[in-house]
Amino acid sequence: VINISNDNVYDYFERGYLKEKHSGSTFFITEDMEDLGIVNIKASNVIINGCNHTLKNTAFCIWANNVTLNNFTLVETTSFEDNDYAAINVWQANNAKICNVNIDYNASRDSEAYAIYSEGTRNYQINNLAIVNCTINFRSDNRGNGRAFAVRMEYSPNALFSNNTINAELPLRTVAFQSTTAVLESEFALAVGISNCNNMTFTNNTINTKVNVRPECAYPTLDSVFICDSHNCNFTNNKITLRDDITYKD
After folding, report:
1. Taking Cα atoms as reference points, which of 139, 143, 111, 149 lies closest to residue 220?
2. What pLDDT, on a 0 to 100 scale, did the predictor assign at position 123?
């Protein structure tokens, strides 16, 4: 068990990496911190407990299996291009748990952004991801440079997304249909975007989405939750609202 403070944080997060030698450790964050940049977790069987502290302009990339992030707040006002624009990026790691985490992400102007990005691929899938009891406040005015999703999950079978609240303020964008259908890559602004996540449980969540800007585009559109190519999913007891107070009537 290791207590982390501003005085010793770089003894463990060495040049932005929590290395394999710390596998099996439990870390307690003992005070608020800021500008740690991207913390790459390469140690497995690790718990980082934030003890209800706030980390400003700090992002996480989970590379190892059995990592738990618990009980802290992330406040983001910058884009993490080297973390694929995510505040928390789960990078091909199994059994990751993100619990009781609050993310307040005010994305940079016209920048791609994700609060949580589970970045699996067909060949390297992310198994048994759990995102539970989290609150995400996500704001983006991206008018044409990449995507803005509060949550993006790809190739993450058996995921659990439960008891979360998402408040997303997003731009209207044109959907890039492929022939007569749409895939996740067709969407540019979403509260939640999910693709190839078989056997997912999505339950007891509150998703509030509203339009915050109407740029010039061919077919200004906003979807809230988009799920595709995912078999045997359980989608129950969710409350979803979608508002547009920007577009003039008719």
Report:
1. 143
2. 95
Amino acid occupying residue 231: H
Closest CA to 247 of 221, 208, 228: 221
Model confidence band, residue 110 (pLDDT cutoffs 50, 70, 90)? confident
Question: pTM for this one?
Answer: 0.96
Q: What is the pLDDT of residue 92?
A: 84
| Angle ∠(121,116,145) on CA atoms, nearest 5 | 80
Sign of CA dihedral 26, 21, 44, 59: positive
What are the DSSP calls for 69-126, one per residue? EEEEEEEE-S--GGGTTEEEEE-S-SS-EEEEEEEEEEPPTT--EEEEEEE--SSS--
Cβ-based neighbours of 86, under 8 Å, separated by 6 or more:
59, 61, 80, 113, 114, 115, 116, 117, 119, 152
Question: Which among 118, 108, 110, 3 has a CA at the least distance from the CA of 57?
Answer: 108
- pLDDT above 90 (res 49): yes
CB atoms within 10 A of CB 141: 18
* Residue 184 phi, psi dihedral angles, 5° rounding: -60, -35
Q: Judge whether 46 and 22 are in contact, CB under 8 Å.
A: yes
Residue with tokens 């609060």: 115
**All residues at 6 or more sequence positions from 7 whose CB lies less than 8 Å from its CB, including other chains:** none
Tokens standing for residue 37: 């940049």
- Whether 87 and 137 have beta carbons less than 8 Å apart is answered as no
Question: Which is it for strands 130-132 and 97-106: parallel, antiparallel or unpaired?
Answer: parallel
